[in-house]
Amino acid sequence: MESKVKRITTRTLAEMKARKEPITMLTAYDYTFARLLDEAGIEVLLVGDSAANVIAGYETTLPITLDEMIYHGKAVVRGARRAMVVVDMPFGSYQGDSKAALRAAIRIMKETGAHAVKVEGGETILDSVQRIISAGIPVMGHLGLTPQSIYQFGGYRVRAREAAEAEKLRQDARLLAKAGIFALVLEKIPASLAKEVTESLSIPTIGIGAGVHCDGQVLVLHDMLGLTQAFSPRFLRRYADMAHIVSTACQRYIQDVKNRTFPSPEESYE
Ligand code: KIV
Residue 145 carries which DSSP code? Predict the structure, then answer.
């Protein structure tokens, strides 16, 4: 019989911030990787809409649909025994109509079994955030370089370097925290600003390209494993060269099949 493992919750994350223990988060999109990451000890699995890029091959995160996010969410939840699973709400599912946003968040929670949702933006999506939280659904925020707004930004450069944008980010962070989000992703902003926001909030911040002073860190799994090669921002540390491992293994397989050394008699049935 499998032993019962204590699930990471919003409360665990708050306690980790209080005792200054860094929180680890990675993206996951399928059962196999979710299980490996969970067993490795990752605390939060983010079913990121970066699935649009690294799984579906789109240029941006905009095209992925709610049904597709739910499909990935279900697979990740099946692989996660201990980690908290957070599912990104896709572009178009929460901006504008807060009732529609709540319906989308409810679908994610009911159909995937995930433990929270994530949304990008501040003041402009506050109604949706409040409505989703009022239904008892934990919400993770996301400020700074928010990829769903990429066409408005006109590129992937560092955000909030200018005083006005930095002040807007501080204000959005305060509003989201007041609305009751349980954690906040800060993407590609100056480390000094991320430190200031982290120290000013009682909820944990999770950084990506936001320096070492955030309460936790997140990376896109396929980037940190070296599966993606074209994407090389300064903040990305590659922990493996899996593109090379996969490519070499496939070349060896092709060779073995072509020269009939696979399968061997031991790999065949009488
Ligand atoms: O979709 C995603 O992978 C994300 C992370 C970059 C935080 O939102």
Answer: S
